[in-house]
What does this fold into?
Amino acid sequence: METIEDFAIDVLGPRTLPSPLGLSNAMGDMVANYTLDEDRVLWDISGRDTTRSFERAGPREFNYFRGPSVRAGIVTCGGLCPGINNIIRGLVLQLWHRYGVRSIAGFRYGYRGLSMRGAASTIELNPDMVDSIHLVGGSLLGSSRGQHDPSEMVDVLVGEGIRILFCVGGDGTMRGARAICAELDRRKLKVSVIGVPKTIDNDIPFIERSFGFETAVDKAAQAIQAAHVEARGAPNGIGLVKLMGRHSGFIAAQATLASGEVNLTLIPEVPFELDGKGGLLRWLSSRLKSRGHAVIVVAEGAGQRHLARRDERDASGNQRLSDIGTFLKRLFRERLQHLDVNVKYIDPSYMIRAAPANPGDSIFCAQLAENAVHAAMAGKTSMVVGIWGSLFTHVPLAAATSGRKLLSVDGPEWRSVLDTTGQPAILGRQPRPPNEQEPNDDEPPGPRCPAC
Amino acid sequence: METIEDFAIDVLGPRTLPSPLGLSNAMGDMVANYTLDEDRVLWDISGRDTTRSFERAGPREFNYFRGPSVRAGIVTCGGLCPGINNIIRGLVLQLWHRYGVRSIAGFRYGYRGLSMRGAASTIELNPDMVDSIHLVGGSLLGSSRGQHDPSEMVDVLVGEGIRILFCVGGDGTMRGARAICAELDRRKLKVSVIGVPKTIDNDIPFIERSFGFETAVDKAAQAIQAAHVEARGAPNGIGLVKLMGRHSGFIAAQATLASGEVNLTLIPEVPFELDGKGGLLRWLSSRLKSRGHAVIVVAEGAGQRHLARRDERDASGNQRLSDIGTFLKRLFRERLQHLDVNVKYIDPSYMIRAAPANPGDSIFCAQLAENAVHAAMAGKTSMVVGIWGSLFTHVPLAAATSGRKLLSVDGPEWRSVLDTTGQPAILGRQPRPPNEQEPNDDEPPGPRCPAC
Amino acid sequence: METIEDFAIDVLGPRTLPSPLGLSNAMGDMVANYTLDEDRVLWDISGRDTTRSFERAGPREFNYFRGPSVRAGIVTCGGLCPGINNIIRGLVLQLWHRYGVRSIAGFRYGYRGLSMRGAASTIELNPDMVDSIHLVGGSLLGSSRGQHDPSEMVDVLVGEGIRILFCVGGDGTMRGARAICAELDRRKLKVSVIGVPKTIDNDIPFIERSFGFETAVDKAAQAIQAAHVEARGAPNGIGLVKLMGRHSGFIAAQATLASGEVNLTLIPEVPFELDGKGGLLRWLSSRLKSRGHAVIVVAEGAGQRHLARRDERDASGNQRLSDIGTFLKRLFRERLQHLDVNVKYIDPSYMIRAAPANPGDSIFCAQLAENAVHAAMAGKTSMVVGIWGSLFTHVPLAAATSGRKLLSVDGPEWRSVLDTTGQPAILGRQPRPPNEQEPNDDEPPGPRCPAC
Amino acid sequence: METIEDFAIDVLGPRTLPSPLGLSNAMGDMVANYTLDEDRVLWDISGRDTTRSFERAGPREFNYFRGPSVRAGIVTCGGLCPGINNIIRGLVLQLWHRYGVRSIAGFRYGYRGLSMRGAASTIELNPDMVDSIHLVGGSLLGSSRGQHDPSEMVDVLVGEGIRILFCVGGDGTMRGARAICAELDRRKLKVSVIGVPKTIDNDIPFIERSFGFETAVDKAAQAIQAAHVEARGAPNGIGLVKLMGRHSGFIAAQATLASGEVNLTLIPEVPFELDGKGGLLRWLSSRLKSRGHAVIVVAEGAGQRHLARRDERDASGNQRLSDIGTFLKRLFRERLQHLDVNVKYIDPSYMIRAAPANPGDSIFCAQLAENAVHAAMAGKTSMVVGIWGSLFTHVPLAAATSGRKLLSVDGPEWRSVLDTTGQPAILGRQPRPPNEQEPNDDEPPGPRCPAC
It folds into this structure.
């Protein structure tokens, strides 16, 4: 893990062009204000450590780029997530209407569209094209997983004349964006690279909430509701729902809180035993005997130690996880056969990922996109737009890729989950030793939020 | 298949008790009217055959039972389906408020609750208990699959003093109800047995529409929408959705029409080839080459000939089908590997079955329940309540269990599906010969609707 | 009222062009079949009167028009209704993909767009333009009320070269279509005029269900749910919801059944007294005393006798109704002041009309549009597409404009409403005498459905 | 306005009872931690002023009350708001399951139920009673407006033996709670009074977000969508939506951002002229001429200066506002008659207020309720639970009632609204002078958030 010395944001060069937005620097004149680089958001809002803070996002009074003479590009990578189309639409509307940008390339199917030059791999974007794309889920541009050669991608950027590149994607995408920045630097090219962090798991460090997460929780809660109905509808019914969350249990935890019908939530951060006193099977058996049904939520990254380790990686370089959902389904059917259990297994993954953004995410996406454009026009680069303490921020790519955000087992969110489910804090013998912290991945967790 | 000679409805005995409903027999007096047994609905509403007709459902002027002195029972069997709770609620409210019945037993977990006597297996039902059960899906009483000994079940009915039994369930449940009727007959017991047909597949003969079907189509269309978004979001994306439909493609067909985004719909009634000219794989390969993505809906009973036959049956006696969904998912991944396809497979089964009834089904369930109660109070028995030409009817249990309703491949509904998807009428060589009509089941199809 | 002698459908001339659809006339060949003019649907499906029947809708083996050489037009009139965009989309897709029509004009803002010639008043339609219009409510073409000179409209049709005109609209629109037909006849012009009946009130005679109605009931039930919550949330709370229904209480009745929370439903077909024993105010006062709250649904055409008659008409020629909703709101506040009532009044009109079609209506609209196109291509004219006994039909414009369909107060639907609400059949003295049947309109009710 | 010297929280007395929750004080032991009073959240998270901070909410290691021996009460006041039932449910479940409280009184219909003693005015609450109340909107207990004599209310508390009182309500309710606290103090009674701030307008100072607000924005966005459809469906269509917001434009602003279809948003914080150059009517007229339709959102407290001032107050003491919605509807119809405008006016108020909480609000309500119970058990009093920088806090009643939170016209939220609508910052001559800041109320605005 890199040390996060600071949250300083790179700038391409001196900013001398007055903003076309016509805002104000005075309070009380009923005109909205520009944001200064000196406007900050504390990392530790508990006030114990006031030395580190994020730059606030927002329009700057002076810009580096002039809209009408710049060409921008947008690329969306990785798995689908609610709100990608809202981000694309927001970027295009803001570039076009507020800054006068008239040339916007959409690269097709992720970095793949950046790695080969050709008419087929870009779409020219304008307000008409994006007018109603937010009504459906998915990505207008398509997406794909996988790394590509930074040098080849920079060749395409140069060939296309791109001066501003918006990369919408997750961890791997942000690492790809850093590689592009490094290559641009090497060639001394002044191109702004701005990330919009997309992770349905909400596990990017230094970012409070990622877009699509709230919608994902909504949809996940619906799947849990179905599992609850099925579990209650059959003798010894077990409703089992697998949710996203490769390393972090945020969706599982929030969906549990939203539904209020879960009896056990299993997340990657908390190990559990299957057998023995206090283990999962005894807990479940006892729950069925006393209540006749059970609802269990499992994050996809939970309990990986119980599965045969597969040394495979997907095209994005993520380790392929073994499927804890089908593993538990079979386990319950075999080991609890004597109770004549009825296991109803729901994997709502694609129905969650393909959903259109809910109103809360629609607002959030619109604001992320606005702030990404403000940052780009001001010549900021090698950064992502984020949110902290409910305020929009700039986060260096280095910080945003410095590890995983994990759910704090000591904190109030997990405490609320335990309150809601009534489950024991630990299923089985002992908590795992610290060095097993991340059994399913070789990446370290990100820095701990000081106030969470 | 039994020959359906007639749709005559059995009655327990002379009906001499004036209805407590206070309706009228006159038109134009602004008071709703009683229904006569002579009120009919033609089976063939095209008018070619006017010899056969159903008895219309509705309140009779004279009843066999007196509400305050009768005890009724309700049992719900088989898989969950939207609207079961609406049916339970409707039965209880109608019995209680309109006919003064004050003793209503709910048997727990299907016929299982009828087959063993004991406090644990019944719930006493009243309006307060059912007040808001329709807001969630599932069954308040629980459900289960499986046949039980009719003699034992009649023992329980006698022991509980049940004079009216409402059986909510599918094919197997209705056969169970017939067995109960036969046993009651043998013992010369005057108990009314009224079925409320529940089949999410909508495949009961002589019944136009079964409750929950419309809600199932709503939810299925949402799953198709997700598949469409996923298919378009990836290079050579294939969105594959498996829907209910063991023998009949009604849900697959209607969901296809509702979504308007499907490119191929596979149903049990239409065989298809995988290989060869015009087969599924060539069609799909060609579609991907021309359009870059495809959305395919497959009913669970389709294409069973391509799967290894499993001679297993579930607890309800239904033959276990091999899983055509996972079969196709694997097939596409293996055989179209050269196209680097991205198969996104969605099985929304439980999220459909566990949904609460939509407004249309809520209305339908309320009316089915009302008419079931009217029939029971009038001493009708060995029948189900149905709907035909939009009018509520009485259908003998013998007719309702006389086979499966199939989607007419010659008719307008399937024609609309082909219009919407643009798919070829036949994938592969030749239509199957008539004797392969029902390859996945040994039961015959039901009689063909003369006007459909 | 005109006498409906027959349901014979006009044809423009001999049909000699083989259909491009490639369907079959044989059963059992797994190819969908053409429909014959001899295929019928009985008007009286109770079988008492088998002399009158509708022509069945569907594709004909021989057509009058050849797609590639014909220009079609679409016009949408009157108030908005869920599903108009689905109809437009369905017409365009069917014309284009199945019949090869490549020239389709959309007239803007109703008959207004037909009454003046000019670039601004038409939009050229094609599959791309209508691809996703069904995701939102409203009309892509816009709509307007008001009659226009038939001669001028035929001038525009001639000028535009329109050979097929689809008129989507209500009662006034259908009368306008008849006037256009008469003018075309007078000029001996062979133009097919096909109506798609749009009435959110569901009051067109000889048509079982109109599109958008089911969605309207869904949305209306949501408004009732809000009224119920508000009524229960305040001491002596009265939730009052005004719903559409100028002459007919279909929406009010169905929404009452869907919600199950209504205590009183007032419809145009059933008069009521405000004062006196058994009148509305005493009923309400007594309900509040016993239960503490009440939920009342009133159709906009109900109780017009209590309002000052306004001799005004809107642009469509409909008599302007006085507002029964605000009248009752004030009445309850004033006359029940001593009970300290809290009246919560909801008028969800536009939120209902502007909704997108639900899945059931989406299917229905797609099929209506298909059948409208089949009829037009076959040279049928002066007719609307309808549905009867769940089968699609052709109904002469003369029949469809021959009066209003009313809810039968003697029939099962109203009986179910009374069962659900528990309200008295009559509020106040006496039912109105027959000659007051339609107090708010000078039009007669349409012919009574023999089986309803 | 009171000066907010500090955010110190009152405590009833020494806390000596160990918590029954069994949490930990150590990090890394996989057991959730207690919260210390020393745990803080900075008021100014920009870091400029680090002198003032809120106490963090959460369970304390030592409590003042022992659950099994304490009686708690819950009262819900004011207008309905999504999530009230979730709060009631959350309080009851937390009290019962985590702290062992077995005696919980629900007072009926707001402070009214506290002001008269009697069996009719309380409901005994337990987990069974609240099990599914969150599935519907409204308040299980009912609500009412209006002030009552604190002395009488304390008499009732004493008579009922209440030691902990949860007051769920808005501004007036919190002032009532302060009066109760003062009376308790005067009598030296040790009763904990904990507020849960309910304001659909989101205008309570020192609180980032109030429950139900997010759901309200969802529903408001749906109403705007309907207005947009209606506006586009008619020539010169104007969709006009009135939303809640007596003093603050938060709902109007957020719903505008969520919908993305609004052309003009009017809020109480920004005055506007009707006439003259740059006034509302000229802007609208020009918009209609260029685009043919317009969508306008108006908060109920906007533009009050244009209405005749009514010196009336409702039962809660709030000044009755004149209706800006119907005023604008009439204004547009009269003054823009020459454009033949079609004004479609939507007032979705009750459909918003009566909605059940969405998943985001469900989570938020559950956590507010948990933290309210933790605070009460610890003997905190005269405070509300709040949220700041996404962390839960304790806020003194004095601070929470010290004015109104207003939308900052200089800040990023309003800037995003202007970006989205493209509307001019000011309609008409001049911004109002500072002393007209709050023309419709004599209450001052609350202190300005330093970072917003």
User: Anything to note?
Assistant: The longest strand of chain B covers residues 237-243.
